[in-house]
C-alpha cells in the first residue's frame, strides 16, 4: 500500500502543477478530446463503463463521457475534484481520495491511468496493478502510461523556463526514478518522483499481478532545442509509452 509520504508530496505537487498549467492556459477540454478518441481506439472493444485514475480536473473523463455510458474518476487533490464537478456531466461520478486506498466493488470495461504511474517502489506498483486486476472486467482492458527510463536518463539536467518557474529534470539511477522539479520565483519548490520501467520490466511486474500486456503504444518526445513536442517517437526514444493490459 502506498506510503503516506508519497501521497503527501503527490497532493502538493499535483495541486500546484495544475494551478500553474491553468494559469498558462494549457490542458483544456478541447486539448484532450483527441486523446479520448485515441484511448477508445486503443481499447479496441465496446466500452460502457470507464474508471479514470488520477483524473486531475476531469478533462479526460469529461471527453470520454461523450462516448461512454458511465465514467468514474478518482483524484487525490480535493480542489481538483471540486473543479471537475463544476463541468462534469451527469454520467460522471467523481471520487476524492487515493486509489491505493479507496474501496471500489465495481468492475469496468476500461481503466485509464495517464501520466502518473510509478508512485513509490515496485511493491507499491504491484499493489496497484493487483487492484486494477480486481477492477477490470473479464473482457475489459486497462491503458496505463509508463515512464521510459532510456529517455529520462538522456535528459537528466535538462532545464526549461516559463513564466516565473524553472523546471529541471533529474534521474536517480539507484532507484530508476525520474525527478521533475518545479522552482518558483517566491522560493517554493515542488517535485514529483516517478519510477521508470523498460517494456520487459513492466511486462514482468504485470505478470506478477496476473495481468497480460497485449500491446505497447509509444507516446511522443520533446525537442528541447526547438522547445516543441514531437508526437511520434520510437519505443526507445519516447518520454513514456502506454501499455494495454488484460486479465
Automatic annotation (TrEMBL):
It comes from the Bacteria. InterPro entries: Methyltransf_25 (IPR041698), SAM-dependent_MTases_sf (IPR029063). SUPFAM superfamilies: S-adenosyl-L-methionine-dependent methyltransferases. Keywords: Methyltransferase, Transferase. GO terms for biological process: methylation. One of its GO terms (molecular function) is methyltransferase activity. Signal peptide: none annotated. Residues 51-140 form the Methyltransferase domain. Pfam families: Methyltransf_25 (PF13649). This is Class I SAM-dependent methyltransferase. It comes from Facklamia lactis.
